[in-house]
Amino acid sequence: MTHRFNLVRRAEASHSYGFVMLFVVATIILAVAIPESSPWRALIVVCQAFAAVIACWTSDAPRRVFRVVLIFSSLGVLSAIGLGVFGSTNSVAGRAVNVMGVIVVAAVIIRGITLDIRAEGVRGRAVAGALTIYLLFGTFCGFVYGLEESISTNPVLHASNSTLNDDGSTSANMYFSFVTLTTVGYGDLTPVSGGARATAIFEALVGQLYLVGIVATLGGALGRGKGGLRKELAPQTVGAPPTNSDG
């Protein structure tokens, strides 16, 4: 019992966002793998709820924040189950629940990373949290494409050949989102609506700037103490070139 308690305390003290990242990856896999008409799509929201709760736990969120996240997560799970049984998880309401779930998890992680950096500087858990935010951003955009598909009367994505699925399924939307986020650009799916094109541009730009700006900066300040990030962001001064004197 004591050994098990110590393991829990060590996991809590580590503030590792690795468990959150696992649930985010599980969300992505389930969104791609589970058929659109299956009531088991409620598991996507369950994974998001677990990610939000664990993010609160690892970031030492105040009790009031933890309560709000717990209530929101419970309502999200109940809504997803209800939509899976009596409605459709690919409806506007179902996809809106997915979008809000991603926003809640991201907000909790961002708050935790900010407080952690202020208290102890950049450590490995801050970088792991930043990478989790990157995955959440791709997930968020995938759900946004689906939400637009549910709202719009016209197709959002177009497949270049008949072997692909462009019927607005979450699988196709999530696939297109991460292809766009990583700027791979296979070209097998292309946005055809104005909203989808705007979202694709926003996703590609923000995704690359985030990696180059935020993640690279945190990586450069890793292990340099509380002032490491400030030093990393400080402008580099270039000394005057040496002069040669003849005399």
TrEMBL record:
Annotated signal peptide: none
Keywords in alphabetical order: Membrane, Transmembrane, Transmembrane helix
Source organism phylogeny: unclassified sequences, metagenomes, ecological metagenomes
Pfam families found in the cross-reference section: Ion_trans_2
Annotated protein name in UniProt: Unannotated protein
The keyword Transmembrane is annotated on this UniProt entry: yes
Domain Potassium channel: 133-222
Parts of the chain that traverse the membrane: 16-34, 40-58, 65-86, 92-114, 126-147, 200-222
Record's keyword annotation contains Endoplasmic reticulum: no
